[in-house]
Design brief:
Pfam families: Asp (PF00026), BBE (PF08031), DcpS (PF05652), DcpS_C (PF11969), FAD_binding_4 (PF01565)
GO cellular component, one term: nucleus
Family: Belongs to the HIT family. Belongs to the oxygen-dependent FAD-linked oxidoreductase family.
Distance between the termini: 74 Å
Keywords: Disulfide bond
Protein name: FAD-binding PCMH-type domain-containing protein
Shape: globular
Strand order of the largest sheet: 27-24-26-25-29-30-28
Structural class: alpha+beta
Length: 1379
């Protein structure tokens, strides 16, 4: 039944009341009207209007009337001529007299057979036009067009017709309306651009020289439609028809219109082949013929998984070998580090997950398989002529060349987008000549000659079979003669037997001029010099090299391994540093990580080796006696390098199949010469390893090998002992910001060593964005290398990233992330001298020539047991890892004068008091709440201080000579307070020292610029982008990198301010502990308060009495409420102590490892999650089911900010995977003067949220008030992740602890905190080689603390590798540090 208002008759339809036209579509010949129809009101003669939409569309013409359209009595009654040119005529027609025009009539007369075929209905097929098909079929067809077919275009271009319609004309092209447009309906706007160049017949005729023409068409087309019809750029679609039915029509129309076979003009302009002048099909065919058919297209390694099905035989083979370095090295288009298979600036990639290649998600839509930076084509090089042909081709076509053997390249020099690769992998010849004489020379040496495709695994097997030794790398799949050798080439034998470049006797190389040359000490000496360290891919294509062979060597070997913790690693690396010079002189080489040291000596005997290695062996034996997990000591002898290598490579293989950022530093002998230098070195190593776990010390510098002076590597190699690397890896789906974060992380990490070492690095394993790379890689040899480069490659046919003479603006580097977005500062680093540099001084804020408010920086955070989050701070020449604490305001480090128990039990590097610039002022810092507290006291010193790459001179800091704070026992040298100046005891002491005990507000606030906390002073300079810092800890959907990131002066890259919820910092009035307004800013007292009842906008301060112990000036914000599983928890009714706080607030405190709240609210939460919870039993944490997620959320600024369910509970000490405990939440003191907050939100909250702390204007806060921003990073599937973690723990079981080892960990509170509890930690090894820590703590210890021993037979859950940041790692956090 119809609606009463439905217009079912013409009479009803005529009652339509028109309101407005809401849409029109010329393509469907329709209008859409908005209006109303009347509808009768029940029981009344009245009616009311109801809204209606009417769509009117012209019906199609009746084919049966076709023959009656044109005649004296035909259907068309009247026409009007629109235009006529050559054989084309355009008319409008009327089907009646008194009406609007009904139809548009296009006439082609005379019409050819081609026209007839074109307009006759045809069956349509999809045909992919290949270059071959274009050459053989399409091009001849287009060329055969008769002139008459495009005469109308010629008439316009020659000015013979339609000149009155031309909208723009130049010698190159015209723009005018197309005849398909009715000239009045803007929504169907249709213009055409006709070019004068008759050689452009199709898209395939476009070349680089035409880009300016296309851009001019785009520019003038946009201008015309803007001026004539007021249409912006976003309203237009510009495209080119293909294939054309007439010459060269560029057309512009409204967005949304149908364009058929067309290509967007913007896309055409942006095409890299067009910009670089792509070679033709004939060019490629000619090259293929020149290399005897060995030219093939680049196909990504994972391509079968995208095209042949994920379970196909081909894809399964890829999955099986995805992280196999040998398999990858045998595939032309595969790379060991997969970012070099991708375009890092976009999503152009074809990858699987390196953590689980069987995961199908990378191949699912919308993911696609793209070529990324994989070369477009490869030549399977077999002869010198193959290379010469490639050079000729590149010179003529401008196609970039790259050289590739195995794909081992941390800097991406063997790949480039739209390039041609010279694949040398199949040059596998290898031979040994005991009397090898280089061509043109007379002296003979034993030599092994290898083809460019030979890999170290093959070379070592050959050497073993011939009872000889060749010095090489530590990875079997790395090529011998390529980038490894030409970049320097180090290995475990290099200390006594030299670098690879020291042992090369001859190169056979094709230089870019096409000549096949022999380079040795007797001919082409300059080229020989350049190839011995100047870097691969730069001076020519090496096809063969001959290396010096030595007799077999017997290796004395010592291995010490253990489960690493920071204290043990510190002791290991201290032993290595203390003995570094002696062991280097004695011929020891090898490597070390945080939990192992492997040293070998090819020139010693058992007795001498045993005596030399006593300090290391004694350390390992002691760990065994103490029952340390996995502690091993091995002293043995290997009969040859080959036998050692076979054992070594089984367990030490490079990371394969992942994307990886790497940075490195050469560590000079001077870093080992004094105790202070060695201490600084170990501190730098620990800080770097904390920032980016996985640091490797390679004892591979040729410190005991005499230099010939004929190599081009930096001379710093000869005066170094270590080569140190740091890494940071990411998976297939990392965003651009995340990738940049990883590159930034390793660069910041290695800054810990840049600060104390000479400007020197190994070019093959250096920071991709290495600053001052010319000096770092080659030192004083760079000018000579540049001269040689210009001599042998004058047309610059070879180029690679940061290579000699490179062009950073080359399109071949388009897939590298932009350099300016990474952490390196070229202006600063280029000023460093070759002799060394001091980063804090070079980077000091006050002397940098910056624009105001543009400084920022970031640094990775170290972490100990998920509790002590540290950041490296540079104090002059010392680097200290300090705990970041938003709950206090002062910076302090422990000095070498500290003799309290906490210091005696610490091996952390201490600041030398004898070198300090003392102020004559002492300070005592107090931390804690009513339950417990700690102190740190000592002198106040001044030093140039840097954090996150931003430095300032004469920063006051505490040189602590007495403390009971146990953080110093865990490689944490002190605390960096990030609170407000009014909470600084050091600033207070400095001001009282200057003005006496009667200090007014004005003196104190004015002193902030000179005596205030580090970040406050930096913020007050006005040189930061923003006066702020931000912190992100481990668990984050914005994975900045590493354990976390402290960003100074801005938000982390990729995070927009609008995405955060910003709330004001609570400002105290004087009665509640605030600081009164200064005389120089009296309006601060009368300014509008942030909250009712407050009359000051100065952040809190309880007073300036030296004796006060209340810590204030905190990052405190309002809480709207606390919620558990979506239901609000009743607010606390516990009365405050002597104050009226007025509202519920929370402290945001990185120095607090748990969550603290009012006792009644905490008990209410426990009762909900654990119905049997007994508040009277203070010795027991509430038991909860492990697999039942609970979400504790805090409402801030009207938005919920939850704690990840995985951080709300932890495992029980007995390893039960069914029942857990709620152990991250305890109660705290009631509000009191100076501490009005009810809640303290520590690390579990900060791991679930990115938090930004904005200082604002520290002297006039009413102008720019302080505030805090929050961004939740809890994944939407956090509940599922918790359940999965529990399931994984059940499946992995509970591994026993054969050593039954225990370790007591006491960590003191920082700033806002509460009780520090003694705990016991069990460290059983797991199958994955990782560590599970099981913790039990007395949450509220009595006056005398006690330790609870964990039964190792029931030690907790095994840790799955994929859960490194997962549930079981984080579940025990709060139990370790109750602060």
């Amino acid at each position: 039944m119809s609606h009463p208002a439905a217009p079912t008759s013409l009479d009803k339809l005529n009652k339509f009341k028109f309101k407005r036209l809401i849409n029109e579509d010329p393509l469907t010949h329709s209008l859409i009207l908005l209006g109303s129809f009347p509808v009768p009101v029940d029981g009344s003669t009245e009616s009311e209007d109801v809204m209606a939409i009417v769509r009117i569309e012209k019906t199609a013409l009746d084919p049966a009337q076709a023959q009656h359209l044109f005649a004296d009595d035909g259907i068309v009654k009247r026409i009007a001529l629109e235009e006529s040119t050559d054989i084309y005529t355009w008319l409008f027609g009327w089907l009646g007299e008194d009406r609007e025009r009904d139809i548009k009539i296009n006439v082609i007369c005379p019409a050819t057979d081609i026209h007839i075929r074109k307009y006759t209905k045809q069956e349509v097929f999809m045909v992919r036009e290949t270059p071959e098909l274009y050459e053989s079929t399409v091009k001849p067809y287009i060329t055969a067009f008769p002139a008459a077919r495009t005469q109308w275009v010629e008439n316009i271009l020659l000015g013979l017709s339609e000149q009155n319609k031309v909208l723009y004309s130049s010698p190159d092209f015209m723009i005018l309306p197309d005849m398909k447009w009715d000239l009045k309906t803007i929504s169907s706007l249709y213009l055409v651009a006709l070019v004068q160049d008759r050689s452009i017949r199709t898209l395939r005729d476009l070349r680089r020289r035409h880009v300016s023409l296309l851009k001019a068409i785009r520019r003038e087309g946009e201008r015309v439609v803007q001026e004539k019809w007021a249409l912006g750029k976003g309203s237009l679609r510009m495209y080119v028809h293909y294939q054309p039915s007439y010459l060269n029509a560029n057309q512009a129309g409204m967005m949304g219109m149908t364009v058929g076979q067309a290509h967007l003009l913007d896309d055409i302009i942006s095409l890299e082949p067009l910009r670089s002048g792509a070679p033709s099909h004939k060019d490629w065919e000619a090259l293929k013929s020149a290399v005897n058919g060995r030219l093939f297209e680049g196909v990504p390694f994972a391509h079968p998984c995208f095209t042949q099905g994920f379970n196909s035989t081909e894809c399964v083979a890829v999955q099986t070998s995805y992280v196999d370095e040998v398999a990858r090295s045998n595939v032309a288009a595969a790379y060991i580090q997969t970012q070099w298979e991708t375009c890092q600036t976009s999503d152009d990639r074809c990858l699987l997950s390196y953590t689980d290649p069987r995961d199908q998600s990378p191949t699912m839509p919308p993911n696609k398989c793209g070529l990324g930076s994989i070369p477009e084509r490869f030549i399977d090089v077999r002869t010198a002529e193959d290379v010469a042909a490639a050079f000729r081709f590149s010179k003529r076509t401008k196609v970039p060349l790259v050289i590739k053997n195995t794909g081992h390249d941390y800097k991406g020099r063997s790949s480039a987008p739209r390039s041609l690769a010279l694949w040398t992998h199949n040059l596998k010849d290898i031979s040994y000549n005991p009397d090898f004489v280089p061509e043109g020379c007379s002296k003979a040496n034993p030599g092994v000659t290898v083809g460019a495709g030979v890999q170290w695994g093959e070379a070592y097997a050959f050497a073993e079979a011939h009872n000889i030794t060749i010095v090489g790398g530590s990875d079997r799949s790395v090529g011998v003669a390529g980038g490894w050798l030409q970049g320097g080439g180090h290995g475990a034998l290099s200390n006594t037997m030299g670098l690879g470049v020291d042992r090369v006797l001859e190169f056979k190389v094709v230089t870019p001029d096409g000549h096949y040359r022999t380079a040795n000490e007797c001919q082409n000496k300059d080229l020989f010099f350049a190839l011995r360290g100047g870097g691969g891919g730069t001076f020519g294509v090496v096809l063969e090299s001959t290396l010096l062979a030595s007799p077999q060597v017997t290796l004395q070997t010592v291995i010490v391994a253990f489960s690493p913790i920071t204290a043990r690693t510190n002791e290991l690396w201290s032993i290595l540093a203390d003995n570094g010079l002696q062991w280097a002189d004695e011929g020891w080489g090898g490597f070390s990580t945080s939990g192992i040291a492997i040293l070998i000596n090819p020139g010693s005997n058992k007795e001498a080796a045993s005596k030399s290695m006593e300090p290391l062996v004694d350390f390992g034996r002691r760990l065994q006696r103490e029952g340390v997990a996995s502690a091993q000591v091995i002293q043995t002898e290997f009969p040859s390098w080959g036998t050692f290598f076979d054992m070594f490579t089984k367990d030490h293989v490079a990371v394969v199949g992942s994307s990886l950022a790497l940075a490195s530093r050469l560590i000079s002998k001077r870093n080992f010469k004094t105790p202070a230098n060695r201490s600084a070195l170990v501190s730098g190593l620990l800080a770097a390893d904390a920032a980016t776990p996985g640091l490797i010390i390679l004892i591979s510098a040729p410190s005991s090998f005499p230099s010939t002076g004929q190599t081009s590597v930096t001379d710093a190699w000869r005066s170094s002992v270590y080569h140190v690397t740091v890494v940071s890896a990411w998976n297939w789906n990392a965003t651009v910001d995340e990738k940049q974060g990883h590159y930034s992380a390793v660069s910041r990490s290695i800054d810990n060593l840049r600060a104390i070492t000479a400007d020197a690095a190994y070019l093959n394993e250096a920071d991709v964005y290495e600053p001052n790379y010319q000096v770092a890689f080659w030192g004083e040899h760079y000018p000579e290398l540049l001269r040689i480069k210009k001599k042998y490659d004058p047309h610059h046919l070879l180029d690679c990233w940061q290579c000699v003479g490179w062009n950073p603006k080359s399109p071949r580097f388009a897939c590298y992330l932009p350099e300016e977005n990474n952490v390196t500062d070229w202006d600063v680093y280029h000023s460093y001298s070759k002799q060394g540099f001091d980063i804090p001084i070079q980077r000091r804020v006050q002397s940098r020539n910056y624009r105001r408010r543009d400084v920022s920086g970031s640094t990775g955070l170290g972490v100990d047991s998920d509790v002590l989050y540290t950041v490296p701070v540079e104090l002059g020449n010392s680097v200290a890892a300090v705990n970041i604490d938003t709950g206090s305001s002062d910076l302090w480090v422990v000095s070498d004068a500290c003799q309290t128990d906490a210091c005696k039990g610490s091996s952390v590097a201490r600041y030398p008091l004898s070198t300090a610039k003392l102020t004559g002022t002492d300070v005592k810092l107090l931390y804690g709440d009513s339950t417990t507290g700690t102190f740190a006291s000592g002198a106040v010193g001044l030093e140039t201080t840097s954090v996150a790459g931003v430095a300032i001179e004469d920063q006051p800091f505490g040189l602590i000579n007495a403390t009971d704070n146990q953080i110093v026992q865990f490689q944490t040298a002190g605390i960096l307070g990030l609170g407000f100046p009014s909470g600084s005891k050091i600033q207070e002491a400095r001001v009282i020292g200057k003005f006496g005990p009667q200090v007014n507000t004005d003196d104190f606030i004015r002193a902030t610029a000179t005596d205030g906390p580090l970040l406050s002073r930096i913020a007050m300079t006005g040189e930061l982008e923003q006066p702020m810092f931000s912190i992100t800890l481990q668990r984050s959907t914005i994975d900045i990198g590493g354990e976390g990131v402290l960003t100074v002066g801005k938000l982390p890259d990729g995070v927009d301010s609008s995405s955060l919820t910003w709330v004001p910092v609570r400002l105290y009035d004087v009665e509640n502990g605030g600081l009164g307004p200064p005389i120089f800013a009296p309006d601060e007292a009368s300014s509008p308060p942030l909250h009712p009842g407050e009359n000051t906008l100065i952040p809190i301060r309880p007073g300036l009495e030296v004796s006060t112990s209340t810590q204030c000036s905190r990052w405190e914000i309002d809480l709207d409420g606390v919620f558990l599983d979506g239901r609000r928890v009743v607010d606390s009714t516990i009365p405050p102590v002597g104050v009226n706080p007025g509202r519920i607030t929370a402290l945001i405190d990185t120095g607090n490892s748990i969550l603290r709240g009012p006792e009644d609210m905490v008990n209410a939460i426990f009762k909900i999650v654990s119905p049997n919870f007994d508040p009277a039993n203070v010795d027991e944490n509430p038991p909860v089911p492990c697999s039942v997620p609970h979400t504790l959320a805090f409402q801030i600024g009207g938005k919920m900010f939850p704690v990840d369910p995985r951080d709300f509970i932890g495992p029980r000490a007995d390893g039960d995977t069914t029942t857990c405990v709620a152990d991250t939440l305890i109660d705290t003191d009631a509000p009191r003067k100076g501490s009005l907050y009810r809640w303290s939100l520590g690390d579990p909250f900060l791991k679930s949220n990115l938090v930004a702390f904005y200082y604002g204007n520290l002297t006039h806060p009413s102008v720019d008030p302080p505030r805090i921003g929050f961004l939740s990073t809890v994944p939407s599937n956090a509940d599922d992740l918790l359940r999965q973690a529990v399931e994984d723990a059940k499946n992995n079981g509970a591994p026993p602890d054969p050593t039954n080892s225990t370790e007591t960990l006491v960590v003191a509170p920082t700033a806002s905190a509460a009780a520090a509890a003694d705990i016991t930690v069990s460290l059983p090894p797991t199958p994955s080689g990782m560590v599970t820590r099981t913790v039990n703590v007395d949450a509220r210890p009595p006056t005398s603390t006690s330790s609870v021993k964990v039964d190792s037979e029931n030690a907790a859950f095994a840790l799955a590798p994929s859960l490194r940041f997962g549930f079981w790692v984080c579940a025990y956090i709060a139990l370790l540090l109750l602060v």
